[in-house]
Write a structure and sequence with these properties.
The chain is an alpha+beta fold. Helix content is about 40%, strand content about 30%. It has 6 helices and 9 strands; from the N terminus they run αβββββαβααβββαα. The strands form 2 sheets. It has a 7-stranded antiparallel sheet with strand order 3-4-5-6-7-8-9. Helix 3 packs antiparallel against helix 4 and helix 3 crosses helix 5.
């Protein structure tokens, strides 16, 4: 009887651990949830990867979509909820450096001519990202809300503000998903192509 109870307890414990494992997993020491909720909508993890520069891991990034996809053009043109989460893993990432890197990535994505039309939005993004210092362990979520066609910015689950514009959203997500992304390997990871 004791053996049967022990076996039963072990099976229950394994099922509990399996359920938890399905809700999140670890990438480079960072817990990545399988889903994000935004305004009552559930977005699922499409892909996850690491951004490195000069052999230094800067952040772990995840892409969440309402409908999983490996088609970057479809994702960029989609008018449904989607989010990018950035989990800062390096002390080299400051708020100022992060906003400059995002602006550079957008310029690479849309070109020198295209970036000029987003000057106002990039100023807003820099202001929202630099409300306080960025440190290891900080998590930024940048979520597109189709109801007001804006990109909502949160830091450590605290709402910082939003930037309006469907075209800005396309250019912003294009940093990682355009034909000329900042990191081709990271693009493949976010698309779930391993």
């Amino acid at each position: 009887m004791k053996k049967l109870l022990s076996l039963f307890a072990l099976i229950i414990a394994m099922q509990f651990n399996t359920v938890n494992a399905q809700k999140k997993f670890i990438v480079n020491g960072v817990e990545i949830p399988r889903t994000l909720e935004f305004k009552g909508k559930i977005m699922s993890l499409n892909g996850v990867g690491e951004r490195s520069k000069f052999w230094t891991d800067l952040y772990v990034q995840a892409l969440y979509l309402t409908s999983l996809s490996q088609d970057p053009k479809q994702i960029l043109n989609s008018e449904t909820e989607m989010a990018i989460s950035l989990h800062i893993t390096s002390g080299l990432v400051s708020s100022k450096k992060l906003s400059k890197a995002l602006a550079k990535g957008m310029e690479k994505s849309v070109g020198e001519q295209g970036i000029r039309k987003f000057a106002k939005e990039l100023e807003e993004l820099e202001a929202l990202l630099s409300t306080e210092d960025t440190k290891i362990g900080d998590i930024f979520e940048l979520t597109f809300n189709p109801l007001d066609e804006s990109l909502w910015i949160t830091k450590n689950k605290e709402y910082k503000g939003k930037i309006k514009g469907l075209e800005f959203k396309k250019a912003f997500f294009g940093i990682w998903l355009s034909e000329d992304p900042v990191d081709k390997g990271l693009k493949q990871d976010l698309l779930g192509i391993y």
